[in-house]
Design brief:
The protein has about 750 residues and is an alpha+beta fold. The chain contains 12 helices and 38 strands. Strands 6, 7, 8, 9, 11, 12, 14, 15, 19 and 20 form a 10-stranded antiparallel sheet that branches. An 8-stranded parallel beta barrel has the order 21-22-23-26-27-28-29-30, surrounded by 4 helices. Strands 5, 10, 13, 16, 17 and 18 form a 6-stranded antiparallel sheet that branches. It is globular, with a radius of gyration of 27 Å. The structure holds alpha-D-galactopyranose.
Length: about 750
């Protein structure tokens, strides 16, 4: 990887084997974007890519050069009020009421490695040789505001990470009204925009649309990244599919309000902006202060959607997630929520845990209801001390009992919330987000604590440390069960209220940072009513998240498939629950529930005591299977093969790093009688390797399986009774392929310093 500066044309070329990113300083000192795409050879002069055309009716920067209009130039970080009429990357309201800015290039710095972003989650390097970073410094002479644009190119994969930092070097405070993390101007709009959207229990479904002139955007104004839209976008060429074709992935490492927008102009060029939602953001920048935007990650590939996803997976697994659990396969857990809801005693929990232990479960998670007066969701949030009526020995008591059984113990918290009926609220009624004299709306009967205030975060931290420091807690599920409505802080003055949404998220990150540093071996799982804050920002602190409250196996196919476009399998909490399912009321076979959940951070969400002996035998086999193959399932290379959004069948697979083992998940929602012949063309295998299919006992070379395909036709023609063979609705199979011999070692672009422990 290299970052080259050509002084003669003031051109910057960032490249590695996969991509080139080229920009240039214009004669007015602004930065033009020249190229982002497949690697091209370096040369002195790329200015031909500028395409300055003398178009009629344009406002020009220089009287003597009519063609030089920012309206028609692709830029790196455009401003308002020059000759550009598209949406800007930055908006700054100045003392005199002006919003006009003119950032001009001053100098740059190229360094090995990648600096951290203070207070914000970001990708990182373990070794300086893994990346190079370019910092471009620009200045607006009138206000004295300095803009630093940071670009990191990684050695492996088509990855460019970007962010911006604004520093007020002038003598008057200003107000940032918009400070996007990236702007990417592309020369044409021949893309399909692919977003991940939905709602509670239907998160991250895939939606596609062709771009046309005008603006398309997704975002959140809810205070969390949201169930509705994920901070991710793929721009793919119309002919791109999972196996081939150009695609640009854009992912924002942020958990709060965001906006990702595409604007196609009159000449078919495309501007993409990604960053903090400007509508709900207004930040006072006093003299001498700086503002750092969140990081946005760009991924380019011409190898199709699977390659894009695999690049995100590797980066987020290895260089965004951190700590003890980053490289470790995840414990098989049992969570009591759907087993008991609020209706439990310590004895009942121990009974559930004992059975779980007998089946091979490794971690028992006590969900909501263990604290304060939490008998229902009307009370208790904020009082993080054990309810002694339910748990006579407190958390340390139950944790020890669970550990004595041979299981690890995990605990649920919802740190950012408070119920009116709680001691915490009674002591600090002004610590919720609410505006004086106005009604504070509730969500799930609770208020949102004002995490923009340090004293509030400190108070919750103190309670959590008390619990985690005095009991054997190995896992924390951190929930967040409502959106922010009346976003007003009683701790900040009037001219800082526009900062509260962002300061809230900084408070969340601060608490996460403190707790993960204090308890480095605790596994954190993020959650927000399922997948309402399933974003890269939280992956930095919590290497896994609860993917969705919807545990129905059929529904989960779409949710997990959609989620996989950006997020690794190891990050997706996936549990087997009872039937009829509590969300969809559907009856799916036990093996199908597991076959879906295997491709995730696997667990159970039920009382195993209620299963039949036959089912318990099956559960034991499932857990043994997961333990045997979880390294491949959670950390292997993941491929999507068949989309649940396009038909009745879904398929995906995971291949081990050495390509000696592959697991193929094949799912059919509705059965058909005398159905069609079906095959799956597999991916990622070694063509020369002979694989044994453990399901059929047959052997096939990798090339056969990839090019001729794995035959998945139902050999009963769909007419054999369900209890004797695989012929019913909601059917599924896992094909395990094991290499018969050979050495197929591949190099890892992000090697781990510590060896992986299972
Ligand atoms: C949220 C979570 C669930 C569960 C409940 C507890 O809905 O998504 O998994 O923890 O809260 O109240």
């Amino acid at each position: 990887m290299q970052i080259v500066y050509h002084e003669s044309n003031k051109t910057f070329h960032l490249y590695n084997d996969a991509v080139s990113y080229i920009m240039m300083v214009l004669k007015n000192g602004h930065l033009a974007q020249l190229y982002f795409g497949k690697r091209i050879r370096d040369r002195e002069d790329f200015s031909c890519f500028l395409e300055i055309i003398d178009r009629p009716m344009t406002a020009c920067v220089y009287e003597e050069e009519k063609a030089f209009s920012l309206e028609h130039i692709r830029q790196e970080y455009p401003v308002f009020g020059t000759t550009d009429f598209r949406h800007p990357a930055v908006g700054i309201l100045q003392e005199n009421g002006s919003r006009i800015m003119d950032f001009q290039y001053k100098f740059h710095k190229i360094q090995n490695g990648k600096p951290g972003l203070f207070g914000l989650p970001a990708t990182y390097v373990e070794d300086e040789g893994e990346a190079k970073t370019l910092t471009l410094t620009l200045e607006d002479a009138v206000t004295g505001i300095c803009l630093e644009l940071l670009y990191t190119i990684f050695a492996g994969g088509g990855i460019v990470a970007r962010s911006a930092r604004l520093t007020n070097g002038g003598s008057c405070p200003v107000r940032l009204e918009r400070a996007m993390s990236l702007c990417l101007d592309l020369p044409d709009h021949d893309y399909v925009w692919m977003q991940l959207s939905g709602c509670w229990a239907r998160e991250r479904h895939v939606y596609n649309r062709r771009l046309e002139p005008g603006v398309v955007s997704i975002g959140s104004m809810r205070g969390h990244s949201s169930h509705e839209h994920n901070p991710f976008l793929a721009l793919k060429r119309p002919c791109t599919d999972e196996r081939q074709g150009e695609v640009i992935g854009i992912s924002l490492i942020y958990s709060g309000n965001f906006q990702i927008q595409a604007e196609v102009d009159a000449h078919d060029t495309l501007r993409v902006l990604a960053g903090i939602d400007p509508e709900t953001f207004s930040w006072k920048l006093d003299c001498g202060e700086s503002f750092q935007t969140p990081e946005a990650v760009l991924v380019y590939t011409d190898q199709g959607l699977n390659a894009m996803s695999q690049t995100f997976h590797r980066l987020y697994q290895k260089r965004l997630a951190r700590g003890y659990w980053r490289d470790r396969t995840r414990p098989v857990l049992l969570n009591n929520w759907e087993a008991t809801y609020f209706d439990f005693t310590e004895e009942r929990l121990v009974e559930i845990a004992r059975k779980a232990m007998e089946c091979g479960v490794e971690l028992f998670v006590l969900d909501d209801g263990w604290f304060g007066k939490r008998d229902s969701d009307y009370a208790g949030l904020g009082d993080w001390t054990a309810n002694r009526e339910r748990l006579p020995g407190g958390i340390s008591g139950i944790a020890s009992r669970i550990e004595e059984l041979g299981l690890k113990f995990g605990l649920w918290f919802e740190p950012e919330m408070v119920n009116e009926d709680s001691d915490f609220y009674r002591s600090h009624p002004d610590w919720i987000l609410s505006a004086p004299g106005r009604r504070a709306s509730r969500g799930r009967h609770q208020y949102v604590l004002d995490f923009s205030r340090k004293e509030v975060v400190d108070a919750i931290y103190a309670q959590m440390v008390e619990i985690l420091g005095n009991a054997k807690v190995s896992y924390v599920k951190w929930d967040m069960n409502r959106s922010i409505t009346e976003c007003f802080s009683n701790g900040w003055p009037a001219d800082r209220q526009g900062e509260v949404f962002h300061r809230y998220i900084l408070g969340v990150y601060d608490l996460y940072e403190r707790l993960t540093s204090e308890f480095p071996q605790v596994l954190f799982e993020s959650c927000a009513s399922g997948g309402g804050r399933f974003d890269p920002g939280l992956l930095y602190y919590a290497p896994q998240g609860w993917t969705s409250d919807d545990t129905d196996a059929v529904e989960r196919l779409k949710i997990q498939y959609g989620t996989s476009f950006c997020y690794p399998v190891s990050s997706m909490g996936a549990h087997v629950s009872v039937v009829p399912n509590h969300q969809a009321f559907r009856n799916t076979p036990l093996h199908t529930r597991a076959n879906v959940a295997f491709f995730g951070a696997f667990g159970y969400e039920l009382d195993l005591n209620k299963l039949t002996d036959e089912e318990i035998r099956e559960v034991k086999e499932q857990i043994a299977f997961m333990k045997k193959y979880r390294e491949v399932l959670q950390f292997g290379t993941f491929y999507r093969l068949k989309s649940p959004f396009e038909g009745n069948e879904t398929a995906w697979m995971a291949v081990s790093g050495d390509r000696k083992t592959a697991l193929v998940g094949f799912y059919r929602v509705l059965n058909s009688v005398n159905g069609p012949y079906t095959r799956l063309r597999l991916m990622g295998l070694d063509p020369d390797c002979l694989y044994r299919n453990l399901l059929s006992g047959t052997c096939h070379y990798g090339d056969e399986l990839m090019y001729a395909g794995l035959i998945t036709s139902d050999d009963t023609a769909g007419q054999t009774p369900a209890d004797t063979l695989h012929s019913t609705d909601f059917e599924s199979r896992i094909y395990v392929l094991e290499a018969e011999g050979g050495d197929w070692g591949l190099s890892d672009p992000f090697p781990s310093k510590s060896s992986r422990v299972n």
